[in-house]
Amino acid sequence: MFGFTLDAADGAARAGTLTLPHGTVRTPCFMPVGTRGAVRGLHPAEVEGAGAQILLGNTYHLHLRPGEHTVETLGGLHRFISWQRPILTDSGGFQVFSLTALRKLDEDGVDFVSHVDGSVRRLTPERAMEIQWALGADVAMAFDHLAPGASSVEAARDAMERTLRWLGRCRTRHDELMAESADRQTLWPIIQGGTHLPLRRESLEGIMGLGEWTGIAIGGLSVGEPKPAMHAVLEHLEPDLPRDRPRYLMGVGFPDDLLDGIARGVDLFDCVAATRNGRHGSAWTTDGRVNVRGAAYRLDESPLDPECDCECCVRFSRAYLRHLFVAEEHLGPRLVSIHNIRFLIRLAERAREQIIDRTFDRWAADWRRRYLGKGSA
RNA sequence: GGUGGGGUGGCCGAGUGGCUAAUGGCAGCAGACUGUAAAUCUGCCGGGCUCUGCCCUACGUAGGUUCGAAUCCUACCCCCACCA
């Protein structure tokens, strides 16, 4: 029910097949984010149409509303949101970071003051497991504590060690839940340690010491640290990560980040930038970023990206997209979100082909050069 | 015709002697966004220049008072409301 096959490798880059209860996922893969049970503004058919193989949901946000019991009563998250492919839920760990002003952390867990109604919601490793179990995600993420990018060794160590202690509790509670049905869900641990390589190694060793895992995540990156620091962490970890398990780089990223990650052995990515930037009118194209609100596109009849096969690019002009944004028609944000998601998914699909053909590095270099506008325009 | 109110930068709208090239908002222009408290946020927004400053032009029009006026006075033009 839970498996990962390495189909090909080209240097550190890998092509694999991940098997989950609701289907298989070809990697490398970008996973769109549907925090509250929907990819912002999009119909599931549009997400499927963009080629999404697996979707993210969020423990904290779905706990707030509609509540995991509601979802469970309605037959689980897949049925509730009408998405039959795999789902991975983030544990709420990211909210410990992003909602710092609204939470109080202690060794046992975290009290959040709900931004919805002000009520206090407590999340612990155990609660995070129970909620994700009730939601019925294919993959549940460990409840972690990530430190900001610029954290000192002390702060990063504190968060990393707490994450490890919490992981033990997550595992225990998840094993208990699995007694109900072992085929329902798998739990993935998260490596922390900030930009400090020894801490990252310790985190990985601690995780491996807690038993077998069907996948492993790298968290706490792209949270303000310089890119070279992220690359260093990935390169440092890569040789010691189990080869026969999928590696998931959480919260990353932009198109060039995907290539950077793939080149360093990452299999799975997720990021809100595709949809958030898309909503804000910022599109990724083969030739770099385009802000579709720009006056330069007022009379531009060309598609956002002539090389893209998404619903937006095959049908609409930049001039029309600009008009939709200027007129504040919801179709604008929706179309650019679809485009950006498709863009990342297609990038991962092509990377997979190149890895299988063992031409990844060369292709990625060419691709990056054109995207970053060096040597072309 | 009478009485009252009003005419401010692309638009709306503050300001009622110097701190005003003139608060705000809109429109316009540019930018940010990385496990989503974001359909959000930030910057620019009269013109010119030898651009941490300087010079023009500007608050209906024309005069005037004053060291100094969008702000006070006079005349005129226009708009609105009510009355006839």
Q: Could you please describe the fold and organization of this structure?
A:
The longest helix is centred in the middle third of the chain and has 26 residues, at 153-178. The radius of gyration is 20 Å and the shape is globular. It has helices spanning 44-49, 59-64, 68-73, 77-81, 93-98, 125-135, 153-178, 197-208, 227-237, 255-263, 273-279, 318-326, 331-356, 360-371, and strands at residues 3-10, 13-20, 23-27, 29-31, 55-58, 87-90, 103-105, 110-113, 120-123, 139-141, 186-188, 190-191, 216-218, 247-249, 268-270, 282-285, 288-291. The mean pLDDT is 96. Helix 7 runs parallel beside helix 8 (197-208) and helix 12 (318-326) packs across helix 13 (331-356). Strands 4-15-14-13-12 form a five-stranded parallel β-sheet. Helix 10 links the parallel strand 14 and strand 15. With 377 residues, it is an alpha/beta fold. It contains 14 helices and 17 strands. 40% of the residues lie in helices and 18% in strands. It binds one RNA strand of 84 nucleotides through residues 31, 33, 35-36, 40-41, 56, 58, 61, 88, 90-91, 93-95, 97-99, 101-102, 115-116, 141, 144, 146, 190, 217, 219-223, 248-254, 257, 269-277, 279-280, 282, 291, 293-295, 325, 328, 330, 332-333.
